[in-house]
Each structure stands twice: as C-alpha cells, then as structure tokens.
C-alpha cells in the first residue's frame, strides 16, 4: 500500500489536479482536513471508502490511521488543502511514516498564493519591477519563526511578500513592513480564494488593516504586499521580444 499526500487545491473542487482526482478515486481510505478541504471532493472517493476527518485528530492519531490501512493493505489518500509543499505539516507525517516503514508519495496541488494571484488577475513577477516572491508567515505562540526569518528582516529585501495565516495579526504586519515598503505600497488580501464566498480587499499599507478588520477576516486568507501589485508601466519581458534570437530546429 501507499499513502498519497494529495494537494486538494485552494478551495474550488475542480482545482484539484487530474492526478490527484484519479488517485483519490482509487483509494479505499481517505484522510481529509474537514475544516479546509471542500466536501465536494469526497464525492470522488469510492462509494465504500472509509472517510476520516482529521480536523480533530492529533499527529499520533493520524499516523495510527495510516498504520491501520498499511496493515490492511489499503492505499490512503491524505488530502491537504493547497499544495503539500508549504505550510501543510506533511513533513512531520512523512517522518513518522519513514520510521514505520510505510511508503508514501506526494501529489502536488494548486497553492493558495497562486489562486490569490489568479483572483487578483496579477502576475507576481513583473520585469524590472519585481522578480522575487517570498512565501512566509509571522511568529505566533505555537510556532516561532527561525532566526533571520522575522517579517522585519524579510521586508528589507523589498520583494513581494505573500503572508499566510496572518490576517489576525494585520496590525503587526503593517507596523513591521511600513519602514521598508512605505505607506503607499500596494496590498491585497484574498480570503477563500476560488470559493463561492471569495473576498478580495485592495489597498495600501496605510489602509489595509482597517479594511481587514471591517471585513472581519481572521483566517483562510493570504496577504500580498509589494510593488508588482500596482505595476502598470514596465518593460516587456525578453521571452517574447522580437529582438530575441530564435532558432528553428
């Protein structure tokens, strides 16, 4: 058997990959985060699949479900929101599976920041304006940030920042970024990206905190900060330039 860590995407059920949907449809056991994964995706599971909502389970209990399936010779579809490569807690699960000798594979998904960029109709990397995107979060009591990865330090780069799990602390975000980006720096907040209740807030570091509080946003949103959000006058890329030398094979 194999445990498949599947990126379920940002929320819309049809944003799971074809590979992810096929893997889900073939697995007799599905572990899913009920608070984040759309219920519509569970319709892809086999009719007799064992469905386990992990939103109230701890790590030991989740791994125990995988061990149980392993002993029964059953594949497991482990559904995670977004893409498993960032802020998904799959690393600790894979470490436990390695120790237990249980094989696993990872099926990538559409990450929340990509869905947010799509909702904003923006390319996050624009020629001569910004070519770097930093995906990060801010320190909370449960999980502190490693040395050198605090928001004030990252802000010195001037790169486009995408902050996950930070809307509850929007005042801190603004305070730490203002010295580096300035009050007029464009900011967008996208909540529930790709879902029917998607909400987009656009503003600057000067007014975004008030907008977030007014909308009552505290979770399931990303904050995007950087000059590329407002870029209009920029040079065309070299990729499609008529001056670029092209070779025909």
Describe this structure in words.
- By secondary structure, this protein is of the alpha/beta class.
- It is 27% helix and 19% strand.
- A 5-stranded parallel sheet has the order 3-2-4-1-5, sandwiched between helices. Strands 6-7-10-8-9 form a 5-stranded mixed sheet, with helices on both faces.
- Strand 6, helix 5 and strand 7 form a beta-alpha-beta unit.
- It starts with a strand and ends in a 24-residue tail after the last strand.
SSE diagram, text form:
Layout: E1 3-7, H1 18-26, E2 29-32, E3 50-53, H2 59-72, E4 76-80, H3 90-100, E5 104-107, H4 112-120, E6 133-136, H5 151-155, E7 160-164, H6 170-181, E8 186-191, E9 199-204, H7 208-215, E10 221-225
Helix pairs in contact: 2-3
> Number of helix segments?
7
Query: What structural class results from the helix and strand content?
Result: alpha/beta
Strand residue content: 15-25%
* Major sheet description: 5 strands, parallel
Please count the beta strands (DSSP E, at least 2 residues each).
10
Principal-axis shape? globular
Q: Helix proportion of residues, in percent?
A: 25-40%
Mean pLDDT: 92
Flag low-confidence runs: none
Structural key phrases:
about 250 residues, transferase, 4pyrrol_Methylase_sf, five-stranded parallel sheet, 4pyrrole_Mease_sub1, single chain, alpha/beta, cobalamin biosynthesis
Write a short abstract of this structure:
Pathway: Cofactor biosynthesis; adenosylcobalamin biosynthesis. With 249 residues, this protein is an alpha/beta fold. It has helices spanning 18-26, 59-72, 90-100, 112-120, 151-155, 170-181, 208-215, and strands at 3-7, 29-32, 50-53, 76-80, 104-107, 133-136, 160-164, 186-191, 199-204, 221-225.
């Amino acid at each position: 058997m194999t445990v498949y860590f599947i990126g379920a995407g940002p929320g819309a059920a049809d944003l799971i990959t074809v590979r992810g949907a096929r893997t889900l449809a073939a697995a007799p056991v599905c572990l899913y985060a009920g608070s984040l994964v759309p219920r519509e995706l569970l319709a892809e599971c086999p009719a007799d699949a064992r469905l386990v909502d992990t939103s109230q389970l701890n790590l030991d209990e989740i791994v125990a479900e995988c061990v149980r399936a392993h002993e029964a010779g059953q594949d497991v579809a482990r559904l995670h929101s977004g893409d498993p490569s960032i802020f998904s807690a799959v690393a600790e699960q894979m470490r436990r599976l390695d120790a237990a000798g249980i094989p696993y594979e990872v099926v990538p998904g559409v990450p929340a920041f990509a869905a947010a960029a799509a909702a904003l109709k923006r390319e996050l990397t624009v020629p001569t304006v910004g070519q770097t995107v930093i995906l990060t979060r801010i320190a909370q009591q449960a999980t502190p940030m490693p040395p050198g990865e605090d928001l004030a330090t990252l802000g010195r780069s001037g790169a486009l920042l995408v902050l996950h799990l930070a809307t509850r602390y929007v005042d801190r975000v603004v305070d730490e970024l203002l010295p580096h980006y300035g009050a007029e720096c464009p900011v967008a907040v996208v909540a529930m990206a790709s879902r029917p209740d998607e909400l987009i807030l656009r503003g600057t570091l000067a007014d975004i905190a008030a907008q977030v509080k007014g909308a009552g946003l505290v979770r399931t949103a990303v904050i995007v900060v950087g000059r590329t959000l407002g870029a209009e006058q920029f040079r065309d890329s070299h990729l499609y330039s008529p001056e670029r030398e092209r070779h025909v094979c």
